[in-house]
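Q&A log
Question type: sequence-to-structure
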Amino acid sequence: MAPNNQITAQRGTGDHLCVLVHGLWGNPNHFHYLADALRSRYDNSRLQILITERNAGRNTYDGIETCGERVAWEIENALEESAKDGVDIKKISIVGYSLGGLISRYAIGLLYSKGFFEKIQPVNFTTFATPHLGVRTPFRGFHNHIWNVLGARTISVSGRQLFTIDNFRGTGRPLLSVLADQDSVFYEGLALFQNKSLYANIANDKSCAFYTSAITRCNPFADLSAVTINYLPGYAPNIIDPENPIDPVPQKGEPLPMTNRIGQVGKKIAGLPVIVIYSLVLCIGTMFYLLNAILQNMLSLRRIKLHCSDEHCRGYQALPLLVNELQHAANQVIGGVNQEISPQHLRPSSRGSDASDSTGSQFTDTDDGIKNGVLEPAPTERARIETDNQAANQIAPGNVEVVNGQPMKFPTLALTPAQFKMIENLDTLDFKKFAVWIHNTKHTHAAIIMRKPTEKWKEGKVAVSHWVNEKFKI
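Response status: OK
Response body:
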């Protein structure tokens, strides 16, 4: 495979630029296979490829806002370089992997606010395993509250934003909520892309759960032994048919399909080492992880301060990001826990109140968030949560789908009111959603884009092939 600097240097004469944005702790090498797949179909006389570089490694700790500004700068710089070569870019496509999908959405808003899409036609926007709704654990229980609180504070600014406990630019709302706001430049810019698609793992993605990467309030694949999977012709057994994803489980007495039996056995085996793993992590790994997190937080804050001193970045930070601002311009992480705990759902009788009780609470670093030894929302957050709860009461408690003439109900996950609102808004953008089942590895988050040329991740080639051949438009 060609090194990244060779891929990005071969700009050619194509007037269509495709931008690839990697995820947390990522680097440009993660896109080798995907970039090569694109290049094998479209040479550089038709398509130019930019793999962003300024957020590599721990730079992704610095927050979606800062990382998005870096990506926007790289895109504008690439256009300037192409213009120097006598090539005017007329079309743009953007692909985000993992956290890179959120960074891309932020960068799109910045470019839109500058009038970028008045000159450049936005064509394709695609995410692979991106946590569009954040990564907070949609489970009940004190230990899950602890996970949401501590996890958010081990990846610097990015962690707080992924767990939706940040206060974006004094709005009193987390950045992810603003990204999905229909009155924001982020939403309006994204809406301009002609083709919007996403790919979400249904199993063994320990970094990004299905509900958040697929932007959904329920998970019909939570129990793979209860359903029969239908695949897209030509892409079995990996890409699930979005029009007819599942069939009801066979009646008692009928043998389960082989894929379901494998999934059922695998699930039982996977649950065995949970207690041992938890003990090892708590006793040995946690201390070192937290010490490293403190160091990385300090380094991240220093990078953000330097970033904000750059002239081009100060320009991005001055851009209005909400429509009302446009009109009045003068005025840390690991989702592995999610894979080992059965998800909690809303009770049909309580709807939104359950959502807030289980996962709707936001916490602060102050003692106001602790009462009688139990984590509770701080007073300022408590008022906002009560308001959100009233809106959440309008949310239906579950989804009912008719599959081959039989109704199948999938309970609603215990998400926060803010997450329900994100789903409502993002669903109006008409994303084409593709569920992906990668069978042969427990690290499907990396496999979905074939991050490395390893045999155990080769099923990711099917997902990339489907995107290149079926969804990417030149």
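Response note: The CA atoms of residues 235 and 466 lie 7 Å apart.
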